[in-house]
Structure formats: structure tokens, C-alpha cells
Amino acid sequence: MAEHYFTNNADLKSExxxxxxxxxxxxxxxxSDLGVFSKDKLDYGSRLLIxxxxxxxxxxxxxxxxxxxxxxxxxxxxxxKNTKSTMVDVNKxxxxxxxxxxxxxxxxxxxxxxxxxxxxxxxxxxxxxTNPPIRTGRETVLTFLRDSKKFLKPGGELWFVMRKDxxxxxxxxxxxxxxxxxxxxxxxxFFIFKGI
Length: 196
Ligand SMILES: C[S@@+](CC[C@H](N)C(=O)[O-])C[C@H]1O[C@@H](n2cnc3c(N)ncnc32)[C@H](O)[C@@H]1O
Fold this sequence. Notes:
The protein has one domain (43-195): Vaccinia Virus protein VP39 (Rossmann fold, 3-Layer(aba) Sandwich), CATH 3.40.50. By secondary structure, the chain is of the alpha/beta class. 40% of the residues are buried. It is built from five helices and nine strands.
């Protein structure tokens, strides 16, 4: 059976590799491995989401990164925007890598743990941010996005990235009963959405 990046497979061999995110004057090093999303390079959509947040998002707030993978979004924003990042993923290896990357980058105000979407998440956040797992199907993606509302403080914001050809506009429409949705950046077919 095909292995997906979101399945847990204890027998999967390990071949770690390093990936660098260079921004401004700084660089963040991530350890990645087989069996996780975008294992060999930083995902373009995630990068666009981070760079849009760096330009337009708030500093120093409580942020929840749902489907964190090896931690690219939550760790980068903790380092660059001083967010207090809580990161969750269903993939055990991804969570292991995210924890390692928090430690290796000496980020004190970030944490990562296993959770099936929001199942193990507690508390309220200023921002829920995600590059949702398209391959898990539309229902899971909508749960990622719609249930975010339950974990946002009043005035909180949902930020997400999706490609036009993945049905981004249809998905965004399905959130309009919960959020005022805006497209705040576009590049190479990727849209960055903000919901207030
Ligand atoms: C598109 S990837 C984004 C990964 C990472 N945030 C990044 O930007 O590189 C989506 C992530 O969602 C995770 N995921 C899939 N299903 C999930 C679920 N039910 N609960 C939590 N995370 C899930 C996958 O394991 C994957 O790491």
C-alpha cells in the first residue's frame, strides 16, 4: 500500500537530511526525514504563508500551527516574529522532528505534540495557521479550517495557504459563515487566505 506523509509507520527507515531557511540576515536549520511532508525542500506554499505573515501578521502572539510537519511554519515564526508557537501533527515522526528542531534552534517559546487535528489541543490562540493536508481529502481539510474557530480568542485570525487548482476558492467559500475571508497574497497559483 502507498505510504503517505501523514501515516504512521514504525518500520519506516530513517535517512535524516538538513534543510535551511534563509531569511534577511538569518538562517534556520531544519532536520527532515523520510515519511514527512516536503522532506527534501521547504514547501513553496508554506514559504509564501510565512513570508506573508512576516510582512502583515502580528508579533509576539499565541499561535497554533496545525499539521506542523517538521516545524517549518511554527518555528520560523517563533524565531522571526517572536510568536509563542504551539505545533501539532498526527504523524509521530513529524512531531519528533519538530521537537528536535525546536531544541536545535534554541527556541524557548515553542512546543510540539501529537494530535489528530485539534483532538489534543487545549486553550485559545490569537492565530491558527496551517498548510492543510490536501491529500487527506476535502472533509479533513474543512475540519482543519472550520474547527479552528473553537480555538481562537475573540478577534483571532485563521491564516492558511491553498492552491487555486486544489479548489482554494470553493473551500474559502465554505468558511464564509464563520469568517470574513480575504486573499492577502497570491503567487504561482498559491493563495494566502486570512479569516477574521
Ligand atoms: C501540507 S503538510 C504541511 C506541513 C508543514 N506545516 C509545512 O508547512 O511544511 C500537512 C501536514 O498535516 C499533517 N496531517 C495530516 N492529517 C492530519 C491530522 N488528522 N491531524 C493532524 N495533522 C495532520 C501531515 O502529517 C502534514 O505534516
